[in-house]
Design goal:
Layout lengths: L5 H8 L3 H9 L6 H14 L5 H8 L5 E6 L5 H15 L4 E6 L4 H13 L4 E4 L11 H5 L4 E4 L9 E3 L3 H14 L16 H7 L1
Parallel strand pairs: 1-2, 1-3, 3-4, 4-5
Helix pairs in contact: 1-2, 1-3, 8-9
Amino acid sequence: MRRPTMTDVAREVGVTAKTVSRVLNDDGPVAVETRERVMEAVRKLGYQPNLMARNMRVGARDAAIGLVIPEMGNPFFGTVAGGIESAIRARGLTLIVGNSSETADLEQSLIATFLARRVSALMVVPSATSDHRHLRNERVAGLPIVFLDRPAVGLTADSVVSANREGARAGVAHLIAHGHRRIGFVGDVPATLYTRRERFQ
């Protein structure tokens, strides 16, 4: 079975697809009786509007936030995604999550997919080797872009990061205060990763 379309609803009621569109989008005059018949056909057929197509047609953004994370299985990023989802749900938005596998090419591909969907905002945890100059036009066009855990590269944008240096400094100070002098460092790979560099410094 295929999904019912606006044309199917129009055929069921005996009106044009434009009339159905007017009813669903509350855009233009439609007789009360016709409106009721259209809504009844929508319920009967189980029609669901294609919001992405509508947004592209009218030049609007989707009611979704795109989030790119480097690793689905990492509990930290799962917690971050859960917190974002809780915050935006109250604002009538939906979260779409993609996994870059810590790969710059895949990250850029996911971002392109989210942009094609015309997301309302973009949130990215950058991979270690990524470059974000390709997002400059989107920033200029007004798309809200926020980087998480690691700042953008080649792009001036908002970022929310942990206090990596301060946290590492506090941890080492605690060990020194307890008499430890030979202190090792175990960090993420690759060595160029922002969080690792900050903690090592």
